[in-house]
User: Which sequence fits this backbone?
């Protein structure tokens, strides 16, 4: 097992208080990166816990507030991370939402303007703002680096309404950035998780099951979701973290503008590959 | 330190040169026992790969294999099983870009003789199928998990190269069909779509006369290829072998039916992503 594949790297991860973002933060740190674990003020407790766990394991990490839906917060958060870490050369945009908290139905036809805008603000504008600030930092320093976006199987499959719209756009944003930044030695790729055992999936399951769903009903929902997938199980955040290390580390040295599905075969079987 | 491929048995087609050879070395360095297969005419080069692996403390052997011949495929599996155990990590790197009598620049479909078309499909598509089928039948019968990695190409998504592009698009769909069929058995099937990689195959293409009949200028040819991709350089066989390792190891345990492009951004820009 090759170790330290992120040795010496200076990483910023958005949405790192929970789920996939938190797991990527832990993995990058375990592979040797210094990590800015970022998230909204509301997630400070959980984000600080992630940073503490990393430090307890001998890694370098600290929590910084960065709300991707707020341009001023992105600017301040990226500047703070640059300042604390001494630069940036590995960025992961894991912050994302599935729907507006008040949104009742997934249909785009039924969607209120502000619910549409909320999902795009976080998933698409948020990814754009962070990637742009990170790219400017890397180009200004004259450093090579990597930017990894988190798309979704929904980037290729029209399910989930505005969520799918936002993730398809994130995928094209990734490709445009790969084209622009390739000559600077900056690689930009996307990872596309399928069903992954996160808070987002749990909330989606509970929303589908309706009030009063117990753990048994939830387990049954997960089992049925797994059956839709060739590998017959729901994925784990650690599966996505493995792909993040490949795409951000030396193993992905000639990979840019690529999307890697970490989905047990779901996109290949149901969404055109 | 345990390697990522410890306890695995790899069978690699086209293992004498280029991407196949780099993959053989890489999987062996991570602990796999490797059967390097290639045409009898490639024996000397293949022996060199095997000797290099042995010198580095790894385990490898050579078997002659023309992937178009089902009986030879059976023999190779028998030999690998006898020598190292049941192959559970397959890499199908054997491939041709054209019929030797017609050449890559003669790969114009509307004008292609039957035998030239059939030759490319026999090696690239049927050869890949025979090897994957041989592996899958044995793994399923033994109730064993495993990984199958096919070598497609950027040409699987970009319609340049006549018969070559047709064969590689078909390899990509073959990969997805098998991923769907074999997922429930715990066998993962993925593909790699390299772009311009510095291999003997590419070197041959660079020496062809130009489309308008002018003399070959390999240096200018390479320069044009390099400047056409976002990363502004050709890739190396080792950079493809990194992806082979990822897709063959447990680091990709939730990835199946996927294609990953070590191509410097070529497919994102010119092949639809």
Assistant:
């Amino acid at each position: 097992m090759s170790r330290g594949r992120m040795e010496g790297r200076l990483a910023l991860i958005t949405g790192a208080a929970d789920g996939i973002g938190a797991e990527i933060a832990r993995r990058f740190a375990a592979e040797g990166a210094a990590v800015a674990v970022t998230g909204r003020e509301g997630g400070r407790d959980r984000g600080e816990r992630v940073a503490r766990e990393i430090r307890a394991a001998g890694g370098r990490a600290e929590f910084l507030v960065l709300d991707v839906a707020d341009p001023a917060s992105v600017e301040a958060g990226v500047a703070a991370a640059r300042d604390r870490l001494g630069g940036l050369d590995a960025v992961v945009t894991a912050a994302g939402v599935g729907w507006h908290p008040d949104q009742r139905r997934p249909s785009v036809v039924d969607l209120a303007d502000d619910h549409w805008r909320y999902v795009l603000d976080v998933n698409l504008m948020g990814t754009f703002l962070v990637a742009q600030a990170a790219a400017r930092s890397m180009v200004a320093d004259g450093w090579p680096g990597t930017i990894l976006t988190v798309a979704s199987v929904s980037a290729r499959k029209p399910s989930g309404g505005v969520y799918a719209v936002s993730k398809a756009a994130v995928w094209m944003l990734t490709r445009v950035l790969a084209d622009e930044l390739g000559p600077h030695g900056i690689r930009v790729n996307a990872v596309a998780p399928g069903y992954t055992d996160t808070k987002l999936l749990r909330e989606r399951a509970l929303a589908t099951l309706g009030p009063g769903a117990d753990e048994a009903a939830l387990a049954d929902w997960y089992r049925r979701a797994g059956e839709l997938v060739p590998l017959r199980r729901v994925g784990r955040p650690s599966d996505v973290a493995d792909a993040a290390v490949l795409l951000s580390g030396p193993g992905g040295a000639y990979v840019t503008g690529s999307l890697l599905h970490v989905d047990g075969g779901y996109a290949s079987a149901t969404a055109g590959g | 330190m345990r390697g990522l491929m410890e306890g695995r048995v790899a069978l690699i087609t086209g293992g004498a040169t280029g991407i196949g050879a780099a993959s053989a070395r890489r999987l062996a360095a991570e602990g796999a026992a490797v059967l390097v297969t290639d045409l009898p005419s490639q024996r000397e080069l293949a022996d060199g790969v095997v000797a290099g692996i042995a010198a580095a403390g790894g385990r490898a052997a050579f078997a002659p294999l023309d992937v178009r011949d089902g009986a030879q495929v059976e023999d190779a599996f028998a030999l690998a099983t006898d020598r190292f155990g049941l192959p559970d990590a397959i890499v199908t790197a054997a491939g041709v870009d054209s019929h030797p009598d017609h050449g890559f620049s003669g790969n114009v479909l509307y004008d292609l003789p039957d035998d030239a078309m059939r030759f490319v499909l026999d090696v690239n598509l049927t050869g890949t199928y025979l090897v994957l089928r041989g592996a899958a039948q044995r793994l399923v019968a033994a109730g064993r998990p495993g990984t199958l990695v096919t070598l497609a190409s950027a040409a699987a998504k970009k319609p340049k190269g006549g018969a070559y592009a047709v064969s590689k698009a078909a390899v990509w769909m073959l990969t997805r069909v098998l991923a769907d069929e074999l997922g429930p058995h715990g066998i993962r099937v993925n593909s790699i779509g390299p772009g311009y990689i510095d291999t003997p195959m590419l070197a041959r293409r660079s020496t062809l006369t130009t489309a308008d009949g002018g003399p070959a200028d390999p240096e200018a040819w390479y320069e044009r290829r390099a400047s056409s991709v976002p990363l502004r350089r050709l890739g190396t066989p080792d950079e493809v072998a990194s992806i082979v390792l990822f897709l063959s190891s447990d680091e990709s345990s939730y990835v199946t039916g996927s294609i990953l492009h070590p191509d410097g951004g070529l497919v994102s820009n010119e092949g639809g992503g």
Summary: Chain B has a mean pLDDT of 94.
